[in-house]
Amino acid sequence: MLKFLHLEDYRCFKDTKLEFKDLTIAVGKNNAGKSTIIEALRIISYALSKPIFRNIPDNLARNFSKKAKYIIVNGKMLKINTSTIPHKYEEDAKPKLTAGFHGGYKIIVHFHDDLIFALVYDSNGKIITNKTTFNNSGFPKLNILPQIGPLRKIEKYLSKETVRKDKDTYLSSLHFRNEIYLEMTNDENVFNEFSSLIKQTWKNLHINPPKIDFSSDDPLVSLVVGENEFMTELGYVGNGLQMWLQMMWFVTKSKNQGITTVILDEPDVYMHPDLQRKLLKYVRRNFQQVIIATHSIEIISEVDSENILNVSNKKKNLKYTNELLAVQKVVDEIGSIQNMSLIRLFTYKKLLFLEGDDMWYLKKFFDKLYPESDFSIDHIFSIKIKGFSNFKKYFKVADFFKSIDGKLSIIGILDRDYYPDSFLSSIKQDAEAKERLKLHIWTKKEIENYLLIPEVLFRISKGQDRDKFYQELEGICETFREETFGKFFDKMVSYGMGDGKELNSKWEPSKTHSKCQELFDNRWKVSLENKMSMINGKDLKSEIYKFINKEYHQNCTDKIILKEINREEVHKDIENLFLDIIDGIEI
Predict the structure, then answer these.
(1) Of 108, 248, 326, 329, which is most buried with the most CB atoms under 10 A?
(2) Residue 205 belongs to what H/E stretch?
(3) Residues 78, 74: Cα–Cα separation, whole Å
(4) Pairing relation of β-strands 2-10 and 13-19?
(5) Confidence of residue 330 (pLDDT cuts 50, 70, 90)
């Protein structure tokens, strides 16, 4: 995989270095340098995909090893004007790009007048001088989406040489049908994989193999697509579908070639927001490393903040945002697209009431339960509420939306907290009266408690003695017992006293306390899992994470846990919630 890129005297970058992760989303203001970074990666990808080695010209030989040979890069095929490359057009500037890969592989691109050339180095730092050595070196493979655009209405049949020469260049869109035809004649399986992928990603869409019409002096190549019985030539469909087909062709080829790293430049152009998310999910599932430059709020909102690289040509080292406030700043600087929330509300006919940051956790659990789905749970329109104290006022909101569309399904999600069962039953009854909404109340204290699965924590600790580890968790829980009972008691007295409830208002304080202790112990003493479900989840996970780090020398975070959890370990509460949410939605 690609590890870093160093740009020196290259266009708007004087001396800037950036590192890549398995997922990198490059964002930033206009003219911040995103396109320049993509151009640099395009040059590197071109050099590695067409490694023809030549002797270094005599006028440059003194600057390099006598044994060195370079790969020529055809700047014209990439639409690169070499005269504008030097930083601030300085005459003494020496533009250079250096890309490092995991395993020690490296490529350095030099620019001299109109000449662009690259030197490549194997994992031992030894310069590679011929194609055979290069092919056998294990050099990592990367592929970048060509500069695609709308297709020609009519496409003439081209020679194999022309199509091969122009592959992966700005001419790719103009030769799209020809390229598919050429690949199909070489290997029919590639087209079959492409056709299968189209059916998977675009409902009811079919694509026929390309055909050549030799009836005229200028033969034409055609590609017919359609939904159900309506079929038409590709030149007559919308730009959005044309772009999607080109992207799916790109990823099909990349998978077939064993590419580990794919790079996409503003794939959101011409594309509906839901398709942007679908593309992101697909490439993440199928490639080891994904790099995307984008302005898309949809894509940015789909990834963790630690994967968002804020591009600025003013900085020497580019940094990832790593926190939500920084992401919001990036979004504000980019400027948002139109809000899709209300459109989705009446598309999916679902409305969620939920607490705090529950959506972040729900997204992670949904991806765990439905890893192959292109649907994202935050497609559903949601409104944040602040617990039981504010919940009843949202009944009016639910009634309002129901009056607009009676088929709307409204789902509420609330923390259990320490409320008595009698109070929860009354709230649920009021909420579901007149089929107003369906209410899910967590059986654990709050959503964070669903992360704290003893067996998962034990695996993360890499401990050897499971019984000892579980006893240590018991010990941590016991430190919260008094505090937890205090909160439990307060809620019971406030909400569980009266006719038909857990407590009798005529009891003496001592009897009330004794009854609360009994009810508390009936849950607390059952098991370790029960204890962990009753304690404040945010506080408990903080203590457990610190304990695992201190005693077992392993990092433990929400993200590490969510990565470690197996599908069958996700609690039924969460699974049942998702079944209600996706009911009637094709995922």
Answers:
(1) 248
(2) strand 205-207
(3) 7
(4) antiparallel
(5) low
Using the 8-state DSSP alphabet, how is residue 317 labeled? Answer: B
Nearest to 97 by CA among 224, 78, 500, 549: 78
Contact yes or no for 99/44 (Cβ under 8 A): yes
Tell me if 450 sits within 8 A of 444, measured CB to CB: yes
Question: Per DSSP, what are the bridge partners of residue 7?
Answer: 16, 97
Give strand ranges (E) for 445-519.
none
**Mean pLDDT over all residues of the chain?**
90
Confidence of residue 335 (pLDDT cuts 50, 70, 90): very low
Type of residue at 444:
K
On the question of pLDDT at 538 being above 80, the answer is yes
Mean pLDDT of 294-320: 87
Task: Check if the beta carbon of residue 73 is closer than 8 Å to that of residue 117.
Answer: yes
Instruction: Among 131-140, 248-257, 320-329, name the one with the lowest average pLDDT.
Output: 320-329
- CB–CB of 352/380 below 8 Å? yes
Separation CA 439–CA 426 (nearest Å): 12
Q: Are 416 and 445 in contact (CB under 8 A)?
A: yes
Contacts 24+ apart (CB under 8 A), 425-428: 427/388, 427/391
Pair 469, 528: CB distance under 8 Å: no
**567 is written with which tokens?**
């599908």
- As given in the structure block, the two tokens for residue 300 are 């940015």
Cα(404)–Cα(171) distance, rounded to whole angstroms? 50
What local confidence, expressed as pLDDT, does residue 343 receive? 65
Task: Identify the sign of the CA torsion 118, 124, 125, 129.
Answer: negative
For 54, residues 6+ apart whose C-beta sits below 8 A from its C-beta are 69, 70, 71, 72
C-alpha 496/C-alpha 426 separation (Å) is 11
Determine the pLDDT at residue 197: 93
Task: Please give the pLDDT value at position 553.
Answer: 97
Mean pLDDT for the stretch of residues 83-87: 92
Query: pLDDT of 467-500, one tens digit each?
Result: 999 999 999 999 999 999 999 999 999 999 999 8
Cβ 47 vs Cβ 71: under 8 Å = yes
Ordered domains of the chain (ranges, CATH): 1-141+266-338 (3.40.50.300), 149-259 (no CATH), 341-444 (3.40.50), 454-566 (no CATH)
H-assigned helices in 137-287:
160-166, 176-186, 188-201, 239-256, 273-286
**pLDDT beyond 50 at 300:** yes
pLDDT at residue number 331: 53
C-alpha 113/C-alpha 95 separation (Å) is: 10
Number of C-beta neighbours around residue 545 at 10 A: 19
Mean pLDDT calculated for residue range 123-150: 93
Total count of residues recorded for the chain: 587
Q: Answer for the pair 436, 399: CB distance below 8 angstroms, yes or no.
A: yes
CB of 75 closer than 8 Å to CB of 116: yes
Cβ neighbours for 475, distance < 8 A, ≥ 6 positions apart: none
Q: What is the spatial distance between Cα 560 and Cα 547, in angstroms, rounded to a whole number?
A: 15
Spatial CA neighbour of 122 closest among 107, 110, 141:
107
Q: Rounded CA gap, 576 and 260, in Å?
A: 36
CB atoms within 10 A of CB 211: 13
Give 66's pLDDT tier (boundaries 50, 70, 90).
confident
